[in-house]
């Protein structure tokens, strides 16, 4: 009975060996097909990159270079305008100071003259009033 069971075991082992060989062949075939598909996809991606992505990237890089150049110019012009505005404001401040000083000098002279005239008038009028009161007082006494 042992002989029958070894024949069955050997038969089953042979079948398992044959199936393993078939699985190995199928796995090798799948690897070969997968590698072929991989190469085909890589060629397609390289072709797409060469025909579409590379020109677009070149245009994008050119645009970025232009933007960088323009932003540099804008920055320089902004600095120049800022300096011009500061110079103009400094001139306005200086002119305002000069005008203020000149107006103050001229008005202080006029104010001084007016105050002098006023003081003279007050003195003259008050002297007149005093002499008039003295005459009135001397006339009453007499």
CA-based shape: rod-shaped
Distance between the termini: 186 Å
Structural class: mainly alpha
Total DSSP E strands = 0
Query: What letter string, H or E per element, gives the SSE order?
Result: H
Explain what this protein looks like in three dimensions.
This protein has 142 residues and is mainly α. Helix content is 99%, strand content 0%. The protein has one helix and no strands. The mean pLDDT is 86.
List the helices and strands and how they pair.
Elements: H1 2-141
Summed up, what is this model?
This protein is an all-alpha fold. The protein has one helix at residues 2-141.
Features:
mainly alpha
